[in-house]
Amino acid sequence: MTALTPAPERLPREPTAAGVLMESPAQLFMPRSLTPSHDATLQEASAAINRILASLNPPPGRKLCLYCSAAGPVLLWAVAGAGQPGAIGPVRGVASNLAENNTRVPRRAIRDPQAIADALGLRQTSGGNRLAKVVTNPDTGFTYFTCPDPGTDCVIHVRFTEVTARTPSYDGTLAAATEQINAVLERAASKSPRPDQTVCLFWSPEGPVLIWTYPTAPPGRVAEPGSAEYQKALRDLLGR
User: Fold this and answer.
1) Tens of pLDDT, residues 195-239
2) What is the dihedral of CA 95, 101, 106, 112, to 10 degrees?
3) Could you tell me the residue range of the domain that residue 19 belongs to?
Protein backbone atom coordinates (compact mmCIF):
# COMPACT_ATOMS: atom_id res chain seq x y z
CA MET A 1 0.00 0.00 0.00
CA THR A 2 1.14 3.53 -0.73
CA ALA A 3 -0.27 6.52 1.07
CA LEU A 4 0.52 10.12 1.86
CA THR A 5 0.21 11.36 5.43
CA PRO A 6 -0.39 15.12 5.32
CA ALA A 7 -0.43 17.93 7.80
CA PRO A 8 -4.12 18.24 8.76
CA GLU A 9 -4.52 21.86 7.68
CA ARG A 10 -3.46 21.29 4.06
CA LEU A 11 -4.97 18.09 2.65
CA PRO A 12 -8.13 15.95 3.09
CA ARG A 13 -8.07 13.99 6.33
CA GLU A 14 -9.86 10.77 5.41
CA PRO A 15 -8.60 8.00 3.09
CA THR A 16 -10.65 7.77 -0.11
CA ALA A 17 -9.17 4.89 -2.14
CA ALA A 18 -6.63 2.10 -2.16
CA GLY A 19 -2.96 2.91 -2.60
CA VAL A 20 -0.84 2.26 -5.68
CA LEU A 21 2.48 0.65 -6.42
CA MET A 22 6.02 1.55 -5.40
CA GLU A 23 9.24 -0.25 -6.30
CA SER A 24 12.33 -0.02 -4.07
CA PRO A 25 15.10 -0.36 -5.05
CA ALA A 26 14.12 1.35 -8.30
CA GLN A 27 15.07 -1.03 -11.12
CA LEU A 28 13.31 -2.38 -14.20
CA PHE A 29 12.84 -6.13 -14.45
CA MET A 30 14.62 -7.70 -17.44
CA PRO A 31 13.19 -11.05 -18.66
CA ARG A 32 15.77 -13.78 -19.31
CA SER A 33 14.63 -14.36 -22.90
CA LEU A 34 13.36 -12.11 -25.68
CA THR A 35 9.74 -12.25 -26.86
CA PRO A 36 7.58 -10.19 -29.25
CA SER A 37 6.35 -8.28 -26.18
CA HIS A 38 9.87 -7.60 -24.83
CA ASP A 39 12.33 -7.62 -27.71
CA ALA A 40 15.96 -6.56 -28.10
CA THR A 41 14.98 -2.88 -28.35
CA LEU A 42 13.22 -2.94 -24.97
CA GLN A 43 15.93 -5.12 -23.41
CA GLU A 44 18.56 -2.55 -24.43
CA ALA A 45 16.37 0.32 -23.20
CA SER A 46 15.83 -1.44 -19.86
CA ALA A 47 19.56 -1.99 -19.43
CA ALA A 48 20.26 1.68 -20.20
CA ILE A 49 17.61 2.87 -17.72
CA ASN A 50 18.90 0.53 -15.01
CA ARG A 51 22.41 1.92 -15.49
CA ILE A 52 21.04 5.43 -14.95
CA LEU A 53 19.16 4.32 -11.83
CA ALA A 54 22.17 2.45 -10.45
CA SER A 55 24.34 5.56 -10.87
CA LEU A 56 22.16 7.62 -8.52
CA ASN A 57 23.54 8.05 -5.01
CA PRO A 58 20.79 8.65 -2.44
CA PRO A 59 21.18 11.53 -0.01
CA PRO A 60 21.98 10.46 3.57
CA GLY A 61 19.08 8.53 5.10
CA ARG A 62 17.19 8.27 1.81
CA LYS A 63 16.50 5.51 -0.72
CA LEU A 64 15.47 5.65 -4.36
CA CYS A 65 11.92 4.54 -5.14
CA LEU A 66 9.96 4.23 -8.37
CA TYR A 67 6.39 5.21 -7.57
CA CYS A 68 3.47 4.36 -9.90
CA SER A 69 1.44 7.53 -9.42
CA ALA A 70 -1.83 8.65 -10.99
CA ALA A 71 0.30 10.86 -13.25
CA GLY A 72 2.64 8.03 -14.29
CA PRO A 73 5.91 6.56 -12.93
CA VAL A 74 7.99 8.98 -10.87
CA LEU A 75 11.34 8.74 -9.10
CA LEU A 76 11.36 9.79 -5.44
CA TRP A 77 13.82 9.88 -2.56
CA ALA A 78 12.06 8.20 0.39
CA VAL A 79 13.45 7.97 3.87
CA ALA A 80 15.15 4.61 4.43
CA GLY A 81 13.93 2.59 7.39
CA ALA A 82 12.78 -0.99 7.51
CA GLY A 83 9.18 -1.37 8.64
CA GLN A 84 8.62 2.35 9.00
CA PRO A 85 6.69 4.82 6.84
CA GLY A 86 9.16 6.62 4.60
CA ALA A 87 9.03 10.38 5.01
CA ILE A 88 9.17 11.98 1.61
CA GLY A 89 9.90 15.41 2.99
CA PRO A 90 8.09 18.73 2.79
CA VAL A 91 5.95 18.99 -0.33
CA ARG A 92 4.74 22.54 -0.85
CA GLY A 93 5.11 23.02 2.87
CA VAL A 94 3.26 19.81 3.75
CA ALA A 95 4.90 17.33 6.14
CA SER A 96 4.28 13.97 4.44
CA ASN A 97 4.99 10.27 4.78
CA LEU A 98 5.05 7.53 2.15
CA ALA A 99 3.99 4.22 3.68
CA GLU A 100 4.92 1.00 1.88
CA ASN A 101 4.97 -2.77 2.23
CA ASN A 102 1.75 -2.85 4.26
CA THR A 103 3.22 -0.87 7.14
CA ARG A 104 0.73 0.84 9.44
CA VAL A 105 -0.82 3.88 7.76
CA PRO A 106 -1.94 6.75 10.03
CA ARG A 107 -5.64 7.54 10.19
CA ARG A 108 -5.32 10.78 8.24
CA ALA A 109 -3.42 9.15 5.37
CA ILE A 110 -4.43 10.16 1.85
CA ARG A 111 -4.79 7.10 -0.32
CA ASP A 112 -6.53 8.58 -3.35
CA PRO A 113 -3.95 8.38 -6.19
CA GLN A 114 -4.95 11.70 -7.76
CA ALA A 115 -4.83 13.51 -4.39
CA ILE A 116 -1.31 12.16 -3.82
CA ALA A 117 -0.23 13.27 -7.31
CA ASP A 118 -1.66 16.74 -6.73
CA ALA A 119 0.11 17.03 -3.36
CA LEU A 120 3.44 16.02 -4.90
CA GLY A 121 3.01 18.45 -7.80
CA LEU A 122 3.26 15.76 -10.49
CA ARG A 123 2.84 16.66 -14.16
CA GLN A 124 1.52 13.84 -16.33
CA THR A 125 3.70 13.08 -19.35
CA SER A 126 2.61 9.50 -20.11
CA GLY A 127 -0.48 8.32 -21.95
CA GLY A 128 -2.27 7.22 -18.81
CA ASN A 129 -2.63 4.26 -16.44
CA ARG A 130 -4.37 1.24 -17.97
CA LEU A 131 -5.26 -2.40 -17.28
CA ALA A 132 -3.15 -4.94 -19.18
CA LYS A 133 -4.91 -7.75 -21.03
CA VAL A 134 -3.75 -10.43 -23.48
CA VAL A 135 -5.03 -10.96 -27.02
CA THR A 136 -4.38 -14.13 -29.06
CA ASN A 137 -4.33 -13.78 -32.85
CA PRO A 138 -6.59 -16.56 -34.20
CA ASP A 139 -4.55 -16.91 -37.42
CA THR A 140 -1.00 -17.00 -36.04
CA GLY A 141 -1.58 -18.10 -32.45
CA PHE A 142 0.71 -15.29 -31.22
CA THR A 143 -0.24 -13.48 -28.03
CA TYR A 144 0.02 -9.73 -27.51
CA PHE A 145 -0.52 -7.36 -24.62
CA THR A 146 -3.19 -4.70 -24.94
CA CYS A 147 -4.21 -1.91 -22.56
CA PRO A 148 -7.53 -0.48 -23.77
CA ASP A 149 -9.20 0.17 -20.41
CA PRO A 150 -8.37 2.33 -17.38
CA GLY A 151 -6.45 0.54 -14.61
CA THR A 152 -3.27 0.66 -12.54
CA ASP A 153 -0.79 -1.91 -13.88
CA CYS A 154 0.15 -0.60 -17.35
CA VAL A 155 1.36 2.92 -18.23
CA ILE A 156 1.03 3.49 -21.99
CA HIS A 157 3.19 5.85 -24.10
CA VAL A 158 5.39 5.72 -21.03
CA ARG A 159 7.55 8.62 -19.86
CA PHE A 160 8.76 9.17 -16.33
CA THR A 161 6.74 11.89 -14.65
CA GLU A 162 8.18 15.33 -14.00
CA VAL A 163 7.74 17.10 -10.67
CA THR A 164 7.10 20.83 -10.84
CA ALA A 165 8.94 21.77 -7.62
CA ARG A 166 12.30 20.75 -6.17
CA THR A 167 12.05 19.19 -2.70
CA PRO A 168 14.06 16.69 -0.64
CA SER A 169 11.86 14.04 -2.30
CA TYR A 170 12.62 15.17 -5.85
CA ASP A 171 15.77 17.20 -6.35
CA GLY A 172 17.86 18.26 -9.32
CA THR A 173 19.54 14.85 -9.45
CA LEU A 174 16.21 13.08 -9.99
CA ALA A 175 15.10 15.73 -12.48
CA ALA A 176 18.24 15.13 -14.57
CA ALA A 177 17.83 11.33 -14.32
CA THR A 178 14.18 11.64 -15.40
CA GLU A 179 15.25 13.61 -18.47
CA GLN A 180 17.86 10.98 -19.39
CA ILE A 181 15.41 8.10 -18.90
CA ASN A 182 12.75 9.79 -21.03
CA ALA A 183 15.29 10.22 -23.84
CA VAL A 184 15.94 6.44 -23.70
CA LEU A 185 12.20 5.74 -23.80
CA GLU A 186 11.68 8.08 -26.74
CA ARG A 187 14.40 6.31 -28.74
CA ALA A 188 12.86 2.93 -27.95
CA ALA A 189 9.36 4.10 -28.88
CA SER A 190 10.64 5.23 -32.29
CA LYS A 191 11.57 1.59 -33.03
CA SER A 192 8.11 0.12 -32.47
CA PRO A 193 7.78 -3.22 -34.33
CA ARG A 194 4.32 -2.14 -35.53
CA PRO A 195 2.90 1.36 -36.12
CA ASP A 196 -0.03 0.65 -33.78
CA GLN A 197 2.10 -0.59 -30.86
CA THR A 198 3.56 1.60 -28.11
CA VAL A 199 5.91 1.18 -25.15
CA CYS A 200 4.20 0.39 -21.87
CA LEU A 201 5.63 0.11 -18.36
CA PHE A 202 3.89 -2.97 -17.00
CA TRP A 203 3.94 -3.58 -13.23
CA SER A 204 4.43 -7.34 -13.31
CA PRO A 205 4.74 -9.69 -10.31
CA GLU A 206 8.53 -9.54 -10.83
CA GLY A 207 8.62 -5.74 -10.93
CA PRO A 208 8.11 -3.04 -13.58
CA VAL A 209 9.00 -4.23 -17.09
CA LEU A 210 8.89 -2.53 -20.49
CA ILE A 211 6.60 -4.23 -23.02
CA TRP A 212 5.11 -3.46 -26.41
CA THR A 213 1.37 -3.06 -26.14
CA TYR A 214 -1.66 -1.99 -28.17
CA PRO A 215 -3.54 1.01 -26.71
CA THR A 216 -6.68 -0.49 -28.29
CA ALA A 217 -7.37 -4.21 -28.55
CA PRO A 218 -6.46 -5.77 -31.94
CA PRO A 219 -8.74 -8.47 -33.35
CA GLY A 220 -8.47 -11.75 -31.52
CA ARG A 221 -9.41 -13.64 -28.38
CA VAL A 222 -9.03 -11.47 -25.25
CA ALA A 223 -7.75 -13.02 -22.01
CA GLU A 224 -8.68 -11.07 -18.90
CA PRO A 225 -6.26 -10.70 -15.96
CA GLY A 226 -6.40 -13.75 -13.73
CA SER A 227 -7.38 -16.18 -16.49
CA ALA A 228 -5.21 -19.21 -17.27
CA GLU A 229 -4.35 -17.81 -20.72
CA TYR A 230 -3.29 -14.49 -19.21
CA GLN A 231 -1.15 -16.23 -16.58
CA LYS A 232 0.58 -18.31 -19.28
CA ALA A 233 1.37 -15.14 -21.27
CA LEU A 234 2.83 -13.62 -18.11
CA ARG A 235 5.02 -16.68 -17.49
CA ASP A 236 6.25 -16.57 -21.08
CA LEU A 237 7.03 -12.86 -20.84
CA LEU A 238 8.82 -13.15 -17.49
CA GLY A 239 10.80 -16.24 -18.50
CA ARG A 240 9.34 -18.45 -15.80
Assistant:
1) 889 999 998 888 899 999 988 877 788 888 888 888 888 888 777
2) 70
3) 3-238
Q: How many domains does the chain have?
A: 1
**Helix orientation angle between 172-189 and 40-54, rounded to the nearest 10 degrees:** 170
pLDDT at 101 over 60: no
From the centroid of its chain, how far is CA 39?
19
The DSSP bridge pattern shows strands 22-23 and 3-4 to be: unpaired
What is residue 28's predicted lDDT score, i.e. its pLDDT? Answer: 95
Beta partners for residue 190, in sequence order = none
| Three-state secondary structure of the chain | CCEECCCCCCCCCCCCCCCCCEECCCCCCCCCCCCCCCCHHHHHHHHHHHHHHHCCCCCCCEEEEEEEECCEEEEEEEECCCCCCEECCCECCECCEEECCCCCCCCCCECCHHHHHHHHCEECCCCEEEEEEEEECCCCCCEEEEEEEECCCEEECCCCCEECCCECCECHHHHHHHHHHHHHHHHHHCCCCCCCCEEEEEEECCEEEEEEEECCCCCCEEECCCCHHHHHHHHHHHCC
pLDDT at 4: 44
pLDDT at 44: 97
Task: Return mean pLDDT, the chain.
Answer: 77
pTM reported for the whole predicted model: 0.78
Amino acid code (one letter) for 224: E
| Tens-place pLDDT, residues 154-175 | 888 889 998 888 888 899 999 9
What radius of gyration do the chain's Cα atoms show?
18
121 neighbors 4 (Cβ within 8 angstroms) = no
